[in-house]
Amino acid sequence: MPEAIQFLLPRPEVLARRSIIIDDLCGLLPADCVIHEARELVPFETDAFVSYRRMPLAVVLPRTTSQVAAVMKYCHRNSIPVVPRGAGTSLSGGAIPQEDAVVLGLSRMARIIEIDYANRTATVQAGVTNLSISEAVGIDGFFYAPDPSSQLACTIGGNIGMNSGGAHCLKYGVTTNNLLGVKLVLVDGEVIEIGGKHLDAAGYDLLGLVCGSEGQLGIVTEATVRLIAKPEGARPVLFGFETSEEAGACVADIIASGIIPVAIEFMDKPAIEICEAFAKAGYPLDVGALLIVEVEGSEAEMDAMLENIVGIARRHAVLTVRECQSATEAALIWKGRKSAFGATGRIADYICMDGTVPLSKLSYVLKQTSEIIDRFGLRVANVFHAGDGNMHPLILFNANDPEEAMKAEEAGNEILKLCVDAGGCLTGEHGVGIEKRDLMRHQYTDAELAQQMAVRAAFDEDWILNPSKVFPLEGRG
Amino acid sequence: MLIPNSETDAAYVIRNAAADNKPLSICGADTRGFARLNKPAEPISSRGLSGIVDYDPAEMVMTVKSGTPVSEVEAALAANRQMMAFEPMDHRGILGNKGEPTIGGVFAANVSGPRRLIAGAARDSLLGIRFVNGRGEIIRAGGRVMKNVTGLDLVKLLAGSQGTLGFLTEVTFRVLPVPPMTETIVISGLDDETAAKAMAAAIALPVEISGAAHLPQTVRSRFIDGVLPEGEATVLRLEGLTASVDVRSQKLAAVMGAFGPVGKLGMENSLMLWRQIRDVAPYADGTEKPLWRVSVAPSAGYHLVSALRLEAGIDAFYDWQGGLVWMRMEADPEAELLRRYIRALGGGHATLIRASEAGRPQIPTFEPLPDAIAALSARIKAKLDPAGIFSPGKLG
């Protein structure tokens, strides 16, 4: 497959010292924490943005913060790029390595350190999976709110790197709104602690800056996150509409009515068909778009909210209304949505866009998106978090057809530019990674990018940390 | 005082100041300007940049120029039954000053009130900004959408930076519907420790508490004209649709009965009470007695107060489930003692909001940072304000 996205050229002086570097790393860490055999490096070549791959120089899998610090100190002193990695589920290529880089994997730091119900916090190592936090505290009536689709696999460290969201963010916010503290290893190996169990930290909001920085500012090894009391119950309702526009208008009216559901998910016709064929969730096949709206609370509260919401949907000529009577029915409604990416992967290769637009522009952007896709002669399935304008067009293509693959990338770029021009942004929750890096100039002026890179330089002057990502390679100064 | 009346103007003024190495003290209306600088600086105010730029209630997002009065923003929101969920406090009472607080000041100081517990701080609602950096360049960060991870989050960095990193010219923030009903459950007669346990138990229930404060005997009578029941008052706020608040308040009252006598305040008194908690009404006392704002883990608040009580004359009450302690000292600010105890109790920070002119200069207003973080913060500042002209020395 052709590669439109460039990586930094490997540093020849690093490549030349490969075996010395591996020996040194083996000296710093226990033998089983260093991977360097070509065969064993293969799983680390790419992440969930599979169209691009690079063989790293080595992989280290430390078990402690001091081991992470030792690796950073060594790599910094020797100008060796470091690419941090959680579970490798990034959809934007955030964890794809490069030939001269040491991959620093946090998967062996997967311990829940402390659960503190009096303060409603969990302190965990960075390699703990997102879902395992909610699993650990669920029995006591708590949960951790951000819920990316990959929550079974993805790690808290990766969530912090990308400021991950999920379907339930409409009410509870994304990672940055649920993070209270981190232990951060700086590029030179110094370890700092930011925040803690108190609700706001002193000084500049370094926590806010680190969250979503895509591994460019340091390595998070521990995090303290906020726990929330689980609602008594949650119930989704499914609506089918004739057109995407009608569904989009309904979303805007629900939000405007003053009700904040925990989730509003949108699927267009192609997405409905793909998901139904896979999950047999009983989705209506005679509609142009569907919405899944979920509310939370006691039975009485949910009844009241759903009555309002169904009323709004009826004003938008809703064709199908499926309220559920049991947990099984609720799970079925969600099953289709949650399997969207997997189900799409069965029928075609796809790239998943992540642009976010103001709610008032949803219908317009959906329409323009299908025009762009038609122009390229491709197919698209739209599945996304409608309540916050975070769109996920899945552009379908055949990866074995280089020309079509290139077209898919081009169409994706046009869609993202469309999102920016509509007053939105390139990425709502997946991150820039390599995927959207070269579009950054469409969203930011040179001065704005230079300002961001200057702040980056306050952490990592020499571009050691995840250096091929986020910022366009030209004009880095 | 410099009062630029456009963003371009502001950029020009700042570019010149940088070229001349002339320090500027960034402010709105200076109603929260309690921190001192370490060298003389000419004030530059945002008040010439005023007005709502864009507000579509259906989108729940508002864009305003930074010098817009908070009261104007609140009025526009109220007309559409919306609000700033983070409930920014008004410092004028405790600081005894006049002037019209600006929206830029709210975000530059990351000012949040009781609902911070559930709805996040000002920085969590802030979606986008425009600001002038220390080079006189106009920089945009963030945007108008709720989910945005495009590049480094300079929005968060500028929020709460107290005018030391940039001059905010425009802010875009998320707003929420005003809940139709507000109720407050009062549990009477709990000591500080039991109150902390009661609040933790309450917040663990699925009733969505949007405010949890403990008002000891010394301050109780100074809220809502003294109508709170006798004894210490532990207060828990519930908001939402009326029917839902009714159900939840019954549920909450039933559980809280195990801690002490339970009462309800009703809507009117609730609204007034939480506004007074937000604005620290008991210490809006017209004095210059040292006043601290302390942020610690919720379970550490009462430990801190009881430890300090043995060594100094203090009065205190608690918001944020016990994690936000408002503490008035009877005589000396006792900064070192207080900060030592905070460290010993697991960390947090203390800000000296009010002090006499004589007492202030010796005491760092904001919590001194550990060396590594202080060094990193200085590097970051140098990247936004290379000439070091913005509010020098304000953060220590």
Automatic annotation (TrEMBL), chain A:
This is FAD-binding protein. Coiled coil: none annotated. One of its GO terms (molecular function) is FAD binding. It comes from Aliirhizobium smilacinae. Belongs to the FAD-binding oxidoreductase/transferase type 4 family. Residues 52-230 form the FAD-binding PCMH-type domain. The lineage of its organism: Bacteria, Pseudomonadati, Pseudomonadota, Alphaproteobacteria, Hyphomicrobiales. Its cofactor is FAD. Signal peptide: none annotated. The keyword Oxidoreductase applies. It comes from the Bacteria. Keywords: FAD, Flavoprotein, Oxidoreductase. Pfam families: FAD-oxidase_C, FAD_binding_4.
From TrEMBL, chain B:
GO terms for molecular function: catalytic activity; FAD binding. Pfam families: FAD_binding_4. It comes from the Bacteria. Keywords: FAD, Flavoprotein. Residues 1-178 form the FAD-binding PCMH-type domain. Transmembrane segments: none annotated. InterPro entries: FAD-bd_PCMH (IPR016166), FAD-bd_PCMH-like_sf (IPR036318), FAD-bd_PCMH_sub2 (IPR016169), FAD-linked_Oxase-like_C (IPR016164), Oxid_FAD_bind_N (IPR006094). It comes from Aliirhizobium smilacinae. This is FAD-binding protein.
